[in-house]
Amino acid sequence: MQLAPYACHPDHSRGRRYQEPAPQERNAFQRDRDRIIHCNAFRLLEYKTQVFINHEGDLFRTRLTHSIEVAQIARALARNLQLHEDLIEAIALAHDLGHTPFGHAGQEALNACMQQWAPDAGGFEHNYQSLRVVDKLEERYAQFNGLNLCFETREGILKHCSKKNAQRLGAVGQRFLNNTRPSLEAQITNLADEIAYNNHDIDDGVRSGLITLEQLLEVEIFAQHYEAACARIPELPQVETKRQVAEVVRAMINTLVVDLTETTRARLAEYRPQNVDEVREMPVLAAFSTEVRAQANELKRFLHANLYRHYQVLRMSQKAQRIVRELFEAFIDEPRLLSPEYRCEDPMAQARAISDYIAGMTDRYAIREHRALYEM
Ligand code: MG
Q1: pTM, whole model, 2 decimals?
Q2: What is the CATH superfamily name and number for domain 24-182+313-374?
Q3: Which pLDDT tens digit goes with each residue over 356-367?
Q4: Residues with Cβ within 5 Å of ion ligand 1?
Q5: Where are the domains of the chain?
Q6: How far is the CA of 130 from the centre of ligand 1 (A)?
Q7: For residue 77, what pLDDT is reported?
Q8: Which residues of 148-187 are buried (b: 16+ CB within 10 A; e: fewer)?
């Protein structure tokens, strides 16, 4: 693999929090990717909601299949741009490790609980939580907590962070305080995440019957690709809807990957970063063209209005929020309901321990635990 000068290089990593001997026969970022795949939180992604609650259907995306799709798209981009593919894969596979059960609904409920019961603790943020998982919560090594990943992997996982939480994090939080950028591997994975969810949510949305092909044809980027697909495949309008949607989705993913590659290449040619430290000091280098950015934003707005806020999704979200809130309330009112490893003397630490416990739950575990606490 020929690495560009602006790529992250495992031999020039800013290092791990705890010193360890260098790996044999694999590079430091490969080791990070391997550690992520072997950790507990990674396996739990299989039973966590992306948009649809896990038990609503076996074909819908879960956090796990979403993360794999992000990794696949990000790796293609890594090759196009000569970035470090192992690092990109590690960031992609770890980026959602901190997600609560029930997707964004669960996250909002948990954040509201933390704000109410531990107002100085910094709330609940899923990116920050993903970093907590790999820095603190995994218990797999005799001499340290967490997975002891490289700085570059941790930097990529921490996509967003409030200033308050950034101050607690040392070097990896610094860029949120002095407003600098992360590596290109991190920037690209972030956009690969967006390509993945915009497209798979169309697919899942149509499969669920909550959005229709007719509605999607009102969205410019979809309509454009639909017309192009019809020109390529004249019988397209006569085949089953799922095949029509799949043809459009695959073409859109391709367009987005090509556009992101070309726009980023042009920006790299303009700014000419000589190493990753220069990348961090420059404006954002990974980007879509203005036109595609506007189209992607329109698609996002469409999905918000018609899928994420569809009344059937909202009914589920409401239930999910109630479960998370009531779990939190039961434990904060009576911490002795928690198994001893989650009990703390300090009230703020107690709230955080409860938040960690709930955030780690899968959808079905949260439902079971709620039943165990509230039903006879
Ligand atoms: Mg994601």
Answers
A1: 0.97
A2: Hypothetical protein af1432 (1.10.3210.10)
A3: 999 999 999 999
A4: 96, 193
A5: 24-182+313-374, 194-311
A6: 11
A7: 98
A8: bbbbbbbbbbbbebeeebbeebeebbebbeeeebbbbbbb
